Amino acid sequence: MSSGHSTYVPKSAFMKWFESRLPLGGLIHSSFIAYPVPRNLNYLWTFGGILSFMLVAQIVTGVVLVMHYTPHVTLAFNSVEHIMRDVNYGWLIRYLHSNGASMFFIAVYIHMFRGMYYGSYKAPREVLWILGVIIFLLMMATAFMGYVLPWGQMSFWGATVITNLFSALPFVGEPIVTWLWGGFSVDNPTLNRFFSLHYLLPFMIAGVVGLHVWALHVVGQNNPTGVEIKDVRKDTVPFTPYATIKDGFGIVCFMLLFAWFVFYQPNYMGHADNYIPANPLVTPAHIVPEWYFLPFYAILRSIPDKLGGVLAMFGAIAVLAFLPWLDTSKVRSAVYRPIYRQLFWVLVLVSIGLGYLGAMPPEGGYVIASRLLTAYYFIHFLVLLPLLGLIEKPKALPNSIADAVLTKHAGAGGAVVAQGAVSAPNTKG
What cellular-component terms does GO give this entry (predicted)? Predict the structure, then answer.
């Protein structure tokens, strides 16, 4: 469902002149004002707007930090301390940026699990979903390289461990590691490469986000019922004010959580060892990545073979791109799929469990548990989802989005409320 022909009419002579040469106002109006959205969207759909806000915040704070950062192994750590102690509000900018990365991943994980729960990856939204997986990969690369820049102990050893993983790849592994290092060990050329890429990748993310939004506006938004829009007048409401107000409220609530971390727990999601300057001669007792990498780190360590672990780690992300074809059910939303709904929550618990195990030492029961959860993770996508579409009996779907909304409100507030909802757009979905 595209946004259709714009009904935007410029009011001033200048805007008429400008619009006839570059119809920017019409594009904004058709995409973010008059654009029809399903009337039953809940607050889980606000995380798209939250992620857009966080991307802008990360780029702005990152540009400011670059003005004071020095990408050299003998100066990087001290330049970060200079930002914290000597630059006006430098501590605030740095904490906004470092905690912003964690908040970015919190939002993106909720956004992805919401898409899996409501089947937002199913046709005709396959390209939209794949673009989202590409954004996720770019985010992970950007966050990893950014974690190296403070050049503390965990930065240095994290870079050493992760870049060494590529050496497991046959034929191309060693050249890739040499290129990443810029030599034969993690040193100044490595830091310069990571600094350059960390600055570049957010703008690449912004470009793919533009494609993501474009694809969304072509096929239209999914909704909690998973039923496509049949009657634009009954099933949808204009993006503005209904969706913009809901998105704005969601962003404010999310920013309150963000502010709590920035002002009260700024180092809670970091690692204390990163406040120690990098020392190639002293290995930390336990090398761990940032929390948002921990599930994949647990998968990596659960495989006894180095190459197998690397393939499993990247396969855990790659399998998400094939989700539209692995899920064989014709019903999108888990609301109408009782067995899938239970398996979905099992997957959520498994993912959280892998995150916990990724932070634990790779020994004893932790390794056994990691292997069991890793096995289930892949079984969920490669075995259970394809079979489930053949054996599951979904509940009856509503005839339309409007019917689902009216039925819900009729049950909650009686037929009078349901009749009133026909004439007045409902924003609570």
Answer: respiratory chain complex III
What residues are designated binding site for heme b?
97, 111, 198, 212
Residue 352 neighbours by CB distance under 10 Å: 13
Do 16 and 154 fall into the same domain? no
H/E element, 237: strand 236-238
Q: Which residue numbers belong to the known binding site? A: 97, 111, 198, 212, 217
| DSSP SS3 for 414 | coil
Within a domain: 125? yes
User: Diameter of the chain by CA atoms?
Assistant: 75
Question: Residues annotated as binding site for a ubiquinone?
Answer: 217
Which residue intervals of 182-305 are DSSP H helices?
Answer: 188-219, 232-235, 244-264, 294-302
pLDDT category at 3 given cuts 50, 70, 90 is very low
CA angle 219, 332, 209 (to 5 degrees): 40
Bigger pLDDT: 362 or 369? 369
- Is 362 a domain residue? no
Residue 277 is given by DSSP the state B
Mean pLDDT in residue range 216-245: 95
Q: Which residues pair with 236 in a beta bridge?
A: 38
Asked whether residue 371 is domain-assigned, the answer is: no
